[in-house]
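agent> Task received from the user: take the single chain below, predict its 3D structure, and emit structure tokens. No templates, no multimer pairing.
agent> Plan: (1) validate residues, (2) run structure prediction, (3) serialize to tokens, (4) report one or two observations.
agent> Step 1 OK, no nonstandard residues flagged.
tool_call: predict_structure(input=
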Amino acid sequence: MKPIALLLSFFLLLLMGCGSSTQITASWKNEDESRQPYSSILLAAFSEDLSLRQSLEGEFMTRLQNRDVTAIRSVDVFSPDFFSGNEPNKEQLEEILNEVNAEAIMTITLINIEEEERFVQGGRAGPMFAPMGRFGYYGNFFGYWDHWNAAGWNQGYYTTERKYFMETNLYDAESMKLIWSAQSRTVNPSDIQTFAKEYVDALKAEMRDEKIIL
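)
tool_result: status=success, residues=214
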């Protein structure tokens, strides 16, 4: 195989190894609280990273509105420091909930991050050393170049796998009881936007299956 082809194959393996995926690992529904699917939900992502909060809540808002659900982002109704420090004032919280007229509250929390370094084995490039003259590639420069340059790209590489574990809870705004909960795992997200999109796609599908939304 030519060096350029090997290089392209190497980068393809990197992309495959770093591809992200989100999977729902567990879910729970309060069967004692039977009601119609919610039509308005307040979204609250708990994170000190404002860009992550905005991305998660924004992605949820877009997808829920496509399902005829009114979604309200916490970043639009709460000050950035509302949940920092001590517990938020319950009266203030109830006042805001009444103002936005939300039927439910969805909390989104990053509960853990795991990192693991692993070695990806390279392909076979033939013997790394042999006496001169035994193999044809010693006969001229181009043969030698093709063999050993290919071997150089074929040694394998290290990659770091990152797993992000999220928990999503849905509370009824009137009773404040937990209605639904799900945990998920996302592997190797390439950036915040990709992470938010895949995470919301998986959660939205699960919510529809559980008839939380239409």
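agent> Step 4: summary for the user.
Residues 1-19, 125-138 have pLDDT under 50 and may be disordered.
agent> Done.
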